[in-house]
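W.,

You were right to be curious about this one. When I first looked at the sequence I had no strong expectations either way, so I just let the prediction run and decided to look at it fresh. Below is the sequence, 180 residues in total, followed by the output.
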Amino acid sequence: MRIRVDDIPESGRVLHYHWDRNRLKDFMPPNDPFEMETLQPVSVDLEIHKGADHVRIRGSFSARFQLQCHRCLDPYPWQLLQDVDTLLLVEKDLPDEEEVELEPEDLEVEFFDGEEIDIDRLVAEEVFLALPFRALCSEECRGLCPGCGANLNRETCRCSKSDKESPFQALERLRSQWSK
């Protein structure tokens, strides 16, 4: 959804809409390795207000996704409830210097061309930024056995005791050879 800045009334504009389940995939690169399925469509509630030299977008969005646990590789549901408060500045207001040191408040600013705002791109960005860095089905997830691949949350390791060679066994063999 694109909104022309000139079409935003002085009182602001309120948006309430839902994405279908596949809309977020339009913003993902092809063959994206992050396994994510939309279980509940993204629900967007935003208020857009314009000032003389900026546009402020406030609101929230929610969705429910199925993510893949990074430890055990099992799928699990994940609920997203995200508030958004974004300040948009016109790109032409950027300084001409090549390098600028950013202040913490500068990180909360987005830029646009001055005529149109791509709301869907902003929402998709916020969704991707809200995703967990390491998706875990639970903090107690034990993951997979590196030897036999057993999911340690559901079953015991199938490795035999001799398969679990200690990294110090090689040193023990060296020590026994030297002591002879």
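Here's what jumped out at me. The two ends are 79 Å apart (CA to CA). And, maybe more interesting for your project: The chain has a mean pLDDT of 84.

Coffee later to discuss?

I.
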